[in-house]
Amino acid sequence: MNKLKNYSLRVGGFMISILTLTVTNLGSTVAQQVKDATPDWSFNATIIEACSCPMFCQCNFNSAKPAAHGGHGSHGAAVEYFCRFNRAFKVNKGSFGATKLDGVKFWMSGDLGGDFSTDQMDWAVLTFEPSVTKDQRDAIVAILRHIYPVKWNSFTVATDALMEWRATRDRAEARLGGGKTAELLLNKAEGMTDEPIIIKNLKYDGASHNDGYILMPSEVETYKAGDKAFGFKGTSGFMITIDMTSKDVKK
């Protein structure tokens, strides 16, 4: 609580009135102001995703490590643990305060690393389409901190690139920079009937809601930029629609 106090002081024959303000709980007041400054937001997006793990990626089941991969190079090289991924997002409907996010597309590539026990992941690169505004970019970055509530050794934003995003019940395709930067080609997993195989009641990272993992093994999953390029075929892939709002975070 803030308190006002009035003191009188005689200086050189004059009576001076001094008004003082005692401020308490300033830290909590500032913290509340910062919290209130974050606008309400909502985010509904469909993601085409694949990674280097075998079908179906064990990282989705709170595993402490991703799948093991045989060492590259000479015979007898050490086994490596990593989960190198591509995620192609299309926002179906969303907002961040007054900023509309409907129709925004962006891409996330990276590697979760070899040990999830401390929520410390290796690296990630975020790429936007040129049409995405600064306010939309800032909103997406803020929301992704809640969708993926982890720490990264490196998290960067790459130069803008055009993005293709197409999906049907049977196939999903996404390309970044015409496929020169990254590419995802997924095909529907074969089930007992012609219907897609969908895993329900399985959490997707920090997202509070999803409509189920539509299993779609990768035909191609590549990232071709810089010194962290990778490529895989026949690995884990899926399509999923997630939904989350700022109210879910407050809960």
Describe this structure in words.
- The protein is mainly beta and 251 residues long.
- 12% of the residues lie in helices and 45% in strands.
- It has three helices and 19 strands.
- The protein has helices spanning 26-37, 134-147, 246-250; strands spanning 3-11, 14-22, 41-51, 68-69, 80-81, 84-96, 99-100, 105-111, 120-128, 151-157, 163-167, 171-176, 182-187, 198-199, 209-210, 213-215, 218-223, 230-232, 237-245.
- Strands 3, 6, 7, 8, 9, 10, 14, 15, 16 and 19 form a ten-stranded mixed β-sheet that branches. Strands 11-12-13-17-18 form a five-stranded antiparallel β-sheet, with no helix packed on it. Strands 1-2 form a two-stranded antiparallel sheet.
- A hairpin with a 5-residue loop joins strand 12 (171-176) and strand 13 (182-187).
- The two termini are 27 Å apart.
- The relative contact order is 0.17.
- The model is unreliable at 1-9 and 11-34 (pLDDT under 50).
Helix tally equals: 3
Low-confidence segments, given as residue ranges, are 1-9, 11-34
Q: Average pLDDT across residues?
A: 86
Could you state the order of secondary-structure elements as H and E? EEHEEEEEEEHEEEEEEEEEEH
* Terminal Cα span: 27 Å
Radius of gyration: 25 Å
